[in-house]
Amino acid sequence: MKIFTLGHLYLYLLILLVTQCLESEAQVCRPSGKLYPEYRCSPIVFENTNAVHTLYNFQQGTDGGGPSECDNQYDSDDTPIVALSIGCYRKEKAYCLEAEAQVCRPSGNIRGRKPPPGECNQENNSDCCVEGKLYPIYRCSPTVSGNTKAVLTLNSFQAGGDGGGPSECDNQYHSDDTPVVALSTGWYGKGRRCLNDIVISANGRSVRAKVVDECDSTMGCDGDHDYQPPCNNNIVDASKAVWEALGVPHDQWGELDITWSDA
What we know:
Layout: H1 6-26, H2 86-91, E1 108-111, E2 134-137, E3 148-154, E4 180-184, H3 185-188, E5 197-202, E6 205-215, E7 235-238, H4 240-245, E8 255-262
Parallel strand pairs: 3-7, 4-6
Antiparallel strand pairs: 1-2, 3-8, 4-7, 5-6, 5-8
């Protein structure tokens, strides 16, 4: 007959505690059901997390069931959205990842500084930074699709224009008569779209334009950025030639809702 002493009990509890700690650290998912396993966790999320991609329908009256939990809406099959396993979904619930395949949120703010006299070029009605005002910065842009929504703005890529220095892609200036654009930081992709054409559509027309620069969403309000605020994360900053090709009346130049795609 085996006799369990208090020492045996302490040893057993210690082993149990260590085992639970190791399982928690590795985040091992264990089924809690018998017939159909259910999980209250998911594997640890890394930069490249392994997963299984399945097909799901988020439209009304389909196998997706009711409306999406994040926004209580149904979504078209043409919209790139996902639902995540419960562990990942709950862990990232602040982002509500079911609603969008990629949600781009501000990564911080910068405080505006008053431009020195004559240092902010307000050609094309460009804004100058306001002393003390907080401006959001972005390191991402919305997901690119076949028809990506964006805001078209007006910029001069000529020497002495409100675009500042030469274009980042080719270290050159470009005539206002040439259809060229700068893209928000996320879309610019560290130069991945440099010197490639995109197709811009609005006002019942389309035009091809070459990407020559970044519309910096991460910095601004300094000499390098002509003391202008950081770009928003959804900007296509275009030359006058683009606005002309879209047939926009001159008195409406400035900002315009558009869609764009890679050519």
